[in-house]
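Troubleshooting log. The previous structure file for this entry was overwritten by mistake, so regenerating from the original sequence record. Sequence copied from the archived sheet and checked twice against the printout by T.R.
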Amino acid sequence: MTETALLEILDGVYTAADDKQVTVLISLDLSAAFDTVDHDVLLQRLQSEFGMTDTPPSWLRSYLESRTQFVKLGQHQLPAGGLNVGVLGPLLFAS
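Regenerated output below.
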């Protein structure tokens, strides 16, 4: 499917160029929104590289602490396990 979309975009660009039209292509890569992040590394980098101290990092730490996940299939469920890495989710994604 990705290849089909790419070919369609390229076809449009080439057609516009053949017709001597100006072409502008803007793309947005959302794949980073689903990268996993080590929570401790994230908090350390926010402090060391961006100078975040006091309240904002404590809010973020509070959001990330004690997060768990579990797997459920039908009536069967595995016990919840703690997470120290994970997807931050759309609420915290900004790039």
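The longest helix spans residues 2-18. Archived copy saved in two places this time.
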